[in-house]
Amino acid sequence: MKHFKTLSAYLEYLELPRPEHPMFSVFKAIDKGFLPCPKESSPPITNECYSISFKKFVKGSLTYGRSKYDFTNGVLFFIAPRQVIQWDKSVVIEQKGFSINFHEDFLKGSELAHQIKKYGYFSYTVNEALHLSPKEEKQIESIVESIDMEYQNNPDEFSKDIIISQLTTLLKYANRFYERQFLNRKELSNNLLERFNQQLESYLDSGQLEEKGIPSIEQIADRLSVSQRYLSDTLKKETGKTSTEHLQWYLIDEAKNILLNPHLTIAEVAYKLGFEYPPYFSRLFKKKIGISPTLYREKYELN
């Protein structure tokens, strides 16, 4: 797989103009005109750059992470360094929007270098991109216009700090808009929780839980065709519990039923639920229920 260490090498591969700054570039076509076209197709590639792009009027699909996305509507999406991307020749000949690309070292020494890693949307797959409302779109366009103006100016000692400050503002707005998107997609969130539980039920019924152990959140997310971070963020926003907490509660609920079988030891119950170490199962059960599995069983038998 081809990997690009510099921004210039990456843009050259895309057949785009060289950047004005060796580690930062802006391509903008918001009001009129079109963004320069990338190569018509590409096998999987990686680079060491962050990308923030807003796309409109794009035909065809782009594969990012594990998913394909159709850019028929305008969306804002984010790519972090070393994420795998590819696209085919069906991608549009012309597209409106903007594209900001910067090498990860551009942020070195700034507060944003640490903060940017906390923004979960950089680890979302592209089908979880941010769909902007018209008002939100205008706010983002205004910030990008300011970034572009500074980018086009003759650089001085203040240029980098100003651009990073504007990038920080853009990312904070994106975080706010993602929060809005999570809230507005309540039905989707509920459906995701239902599908999450269905995956666990299927895994249990097939015997894989006892045979292969507890599935990781990444494995479950992969089966649901979403990213691990998006799955947890969505469930947390809607239910107040992370995907890991939902998984634990599912196992504990199953444990309550299995503990009713007096012929199974506590260790055997733990193994049936995929726990490799029975003491961990007992500690988790007590943490969630308030009493140990043994006391829970005794309490039920007394009733």
State the oligomer: single chain
Low-confidence stretches: none
Rounded to the nearest angstrom, the radius of gyration is: 24 Å
Treating each run of at least 4 consecutive H or I residues as one helix, how many helices?
12
Shape: elongated
Structural class estimated from helices and strands? alpha+beta
Mean of residue pLDDT values: 81
- The percentage of residues in β strands lies in 15-25%
- Order of strands in the sheet with the most strands? 1-3-8-5-6
Count structural domains: 2
Outline the secondary-structure elements.
Elements: E1 2-4, H1 7-13, E2 24-29, E3 42-47, E4 49-56, E5 61-64, E6 67-70, E7 75-79, E8 85-87, E9 96-103, H2 112-115, H3 134-152, H4 159-184, H5 186-205, H6 208-212, H7 217-223, H8 228-239, H9 243-258, H10 266-272, H11 278-289, H12 293-302
Parallel strand pairs: 1-3
Antiparallel strand pairs: 2-9, 3-8, 4-7, 4-9, 5-6, 5-8
Keyphrases for this structure?
303 residues; alpha+beta; Jelly Rolls; Arc Repressor Mutant, subunit A; 2 domains; 5-stranded mixed sheet; 4-stranded antiparallel sheet; 12 helices; 9 strands; elongated; Homeodomain-like_sf; transcription regulation
